[in-house]
Structures are given as structure tokens and as C-alpha cells.
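Worked example 4.2. Below are the chains of a multi-component assembly; read each line carefully before continuing.
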Amino acid sequence: MRRGWVAISLLVLSLGLSLPVRAEEIIVSAAASLTDALREIGKIYESRTQDKVALNFGNSAALARQIEEGAPADIFFSADLEKMDLLEKNGRVDSATRRNLLSNQLVLIVPSDSKLAVRSPKDLLQPGVKRIALAEPNAAPVGIYTRKYLEAEGLWERVKEKIIPVLDVRAALASVVSGNVEAGFLYKTDAALSKRVKVVYEVPIEKGPKILYPVAVVKDSKKKDAARGYVNFLSSEPGKSVFKKYGFVVLE
Amino acid sequence: MISLSPEVWQVTFFSLAIALSSTLTILPFGIAVSWLLARREWRFKSFIETTVLLPLVMPPVATGLILLKFFGRRSLVGQWLYDWGIEILFNWKGVLAAMAVMSFPLLVRSVRTSFAEVNPRLEQIAATLGASNLKIFFTITIPLAWRGIVAGSLLAFSRALGEFGATIMVAGNIPGRTQTLSLAIFSFVQSGKDEEAFGLLLITVVLAFLAVGFSERLVRSKRKA
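Applying the procedure described above to all two chains together yields the following C-alpha cells:
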């Protein structure tokens, strides 16, 4: 029995020692819609510098909340201005490092095998459309953008009952892919990731809310130089070309 | 189909290691608290009892928020730890904290019941024969309650392995750093990487089979005894 415990403790110890805690790395808290682009950029960045990049993906509201509480993120890459403005106002991010780097477009998608005649947001009123997936319309940026757009179109009150609020933009995509909802709103860049959905309507840039992705270095970061280097890399040519490849509009 | 990539194995071993560490960490505390709850009357007992069991009934995300507030650099405790160079959020310690808090009630519930089932007369007899309280505890109480302790640990371990809501709040969802089985399955499904998700699913099913099978054997051996 005693020997068993010794073996278990040794196992725990050895596993504990092998955990990746020593690597010098920067933590990037980024909006879920940036997942694939940032993974690709991270690989290029790591191959060119000594730094490692740890990516923490989630919805911008939750990520901002974590930074607000003092979570050790070095960079915040948000999918909306409001969350970044709030952190900047509270002195949690370094204003001098902030850039509004990217833009995106709202699209309406349906499962690719959908037989419903959904061509525009108005068609969501038809009874065949029972559920519409949308990232949390009061917290997640894409949800807020969509709600504002539908309100401006006079449709929000009429489709509100059909809205299934989900965690973030990727969860919205997953529910349309699975066919459990008849339609969903998300960013153009996320819609492009799956062959099992089709885009039936692109909200014209001039009609939709202005979607911006601001990025900034967190004030409490202990690796400010590395963090600044990473932000610069995002807006350099190699970074820009990856963002463009995934369908983002690069602003700078 | 199913992919068992290096990333999948890394996530599996990381989760197993932290869940095991979490269980071993809470075990001594769980045994002490359970014994105090089962065998002693004291002030604020029901208050402490409720507090301990709270994570079992509260939404995990709510527990996660409390932990985030508690360990964040903006809080007194978080600041104090930070001054000592200890950071809980966004690394494996955060994962361990979330798992430990979420699985503690399950351990206590099981161990407490098994302590309550130990016949106090046996302990009293030992006392009349001159055994110290500590000796009684380790030679009478613990051996008679060991099944409950093992079952409780197993339950706590399984709960720790499946923990999601509190973990994502406290430790984030950082691949290779804080991503656990549950978080990885979630992320893989979200980014359309079903092969990896199914790989992890397969591993989860195997682990669940082992855990359930083991606890079943434990129950059966009890019936025989």
C-alpha cells in the first residue's frame, strides 16, 4: 500500500515537472473569430523570434472581464470597440499601443442543405425559420452588432423570439453546421470556414454597424517589449496577408 | 474519422495530471472536514457545511467568477500572492484551483457518510483500551471508512476531469497551457476539427469506463464483506 502511494506521488511529481511553465511567452487574449488567423500568424511569429505566443480565445466580453480582474494577459485583441474602450478608460490597457487593426462584415448563413427560401434578413419572418443562432446579443460583439443592425431594419422585435443566444461566434457557426438551427448571423470570416453552411446575405458595409477589431498591450504586462513586438508584427506585411487570406478587412 | 494527434495526447496527460494532483491536494482537507462534520458538534457547523457544498449546486461559471475575483491581481488575496510571485490565473495552478474547488463537495459528501457509518462504539472501546485519539483515527476510523474515501476520491477525480465552467473563467482556454479535455473538445468542435474532438471523446469514454468499472468493483467487494 505504502509503496503504491510513493509511486503515485512520484508520478504526480514527474508530470508536474514536465508541465510547460518555464517557457518565456506572451499571452494573447483574443476574440474567438480570430482563432484561425492568429494561430497561423503565431506560428510565423514564433519561427522568426525567440518568443512564444499562447493564445486564449473566448468572447471579447469574458476576456475583457478577466483582464479587468487582473488576469495575466499581455495583449487584448477584441472584436469590439466598447470592451476595449472600457478597459482603456479604466487604465487596464496601454493607450499608446492601441490600434484599430481589422474590420469584418456581418453575414446571414443557413445550413448548405437548407431547403428554406431564405435570401435576406426579412425572410427570417417566415414560419419555417424556427431558430436563429446568435452569439449572446447583449454581451458578445457579433451579437450586439447583429441586434443593432436588425433593430435599424425594424426586424429585431419580430425575430427576437426565434433567437437562440449562444456563447460566441464559433458556437453560432457550430449550431448552424449541426443543422439544429435554420439560420445564424456571424462574421463573413467565420462563415468561410465551413463548407456545410452557405452565405445567403452579406450585410452591406455602409448599412451595417462599423465592426472594428482593436488590439492593445495590457498595462500590467511584464513583457511589454515582447508584446509591442507582437502587435507590430500583426500590422506588418506577413501579419496583414494572413488576415486578408481569412477574409478580414485590414485597416492600416 | 478519429484523430489521436500529439495535441490530443498532450491535452489528455495534462488533464489527468492536474485532476490527479487536485484530488491528492484536497484529500487530506476533505478527510479532516468530513470527520469534523460527521463526528463533532461545533459553532457555525451548518454554515461551513453549506459553504463547502455550495460549488455542487451553484453554476460552475458562478463559482469560476468568485475564484476569478478572489485570485485576480485586483483582489487582496490575489495581490498578496502576486507579491510573493505566485500567479493563479491563466496557468495550470488556475486549472488546479478550479478543479479542486468544484470537486471538493463530492469528496466530502462521500467521505462524511462513510465516517458516519463507522460504529462509534468501536472507537470508544479503543479509547478505553488506552489508544490516543490520533491512533484511533488512523487504526480504527480510517480503515473502516476506506471504501468511502476511495469512492469519494474517484468521484472527485472524475468531476475534476470533466470540469469546464470554472476552469474557463479562472484559467482561460489556452492550448498547450491551460486547455483541458473538456475545453479542448469544446474548442475542437467550435473550430470544426471533428476528428480531434472524436479522438478526445474516445479517450473520455475509455476513462469513464475505467472509473465506473472500478467503483462498481468497490461496491461489490463491500457487499461480500
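Take a moment to check your reading of the output against the notes. Chain A touches chain B at residues 8-9, 11-12, 15-16, 19-21, 27, 29, 32, 35-36, 54-58, 62, 65-66, 68-73, 170-171, 173-174, 177, 193-194, 220 (CB under 8 Å). The domain at 21-103+212-250 of chain A is CATH 3.40.190.10 (D-Maltodextrin-Binding Protein; domain 2).
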